[in-house]
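QA checklist item 7 of 12: single-chain prediction sanity check.
[x] sequence parsed
[x] length recorded as 273
[x] structure emitted
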Amino acid sequence: MNASPKKSPTASGNAVPQDTTKSVAPALTKGFAILDLVAQEPGLNFAAIKTRLGMPNSSCHHLITTLCQLGALQIQPNRGYVLGLRLFELGTIAASQRRLGEFALPSLKQLAQQTQLTCHLGVMEGSEAVYLLKVEGSHEIRVNTWEGKRLSLHSSSLGKVLLAWLPEAELEEKLKEVIWEKKTTNTITGPEVFRAHLAQVRKRGWAFDDEEDIANLRCVAAPVVDAEGKVIAAISAVGTILNIAKDRFELLAEQVCQTAGNISHDLGYKAIR
């Protein structure tokens, strides 16, 4: 019979399990134990946290100091600790992404059925785009993508959309982070040319990838906006050059933009008529 992990004896029973020493990142596990404890009992001071979790003085001090520096913990005037605003920020993002996926999935399934293409929902994360959702199309030729796959911002249609509506200063910062890798013969690798390309994306309201990220694949993407009109994500439809002829771009863009608009409406965006 399997026994429960043994804990270091403490007055409260909130100790860190002994098997955290077997963790790949034991300091991270202990750091989360501190956050969990403070979440349950906000205002605990250093001595109380150390005692409750059965941690050595030095390691507990180091972890709390680091968590404060990262904004995960905040010390109050009475020397007690509460959760920091950075956790609130991350929690808000996590909740919005979950909500975004829930709202987008039905529309994305409808788009995949309508176009017979593989469709994605993606967001910007750092200097890359990442797929949150994937819905397979009905074509026999499958596109090798997956939820969680990361994409270059400059060579994918989804990445272009996520960049195109950024404020100017933020866009310039993102472009400084771009590694202008020439993935195919069609990839745009010059910042000035790319800026002009983004201007056209904004004017059209959608972006395309004409074998710029992967040879023989084409893609069309459009922005998803929140209730305040901010671009928070993008959806895309992708297929091979046999599935998406160049003269299909306009019709496909109309379908993708309509779906993006529906998702945006479900998120509370009211378009100006």
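[x] summary fact logged: The radius of gyration is 24 Å.
[ ] second reviewer sign-off
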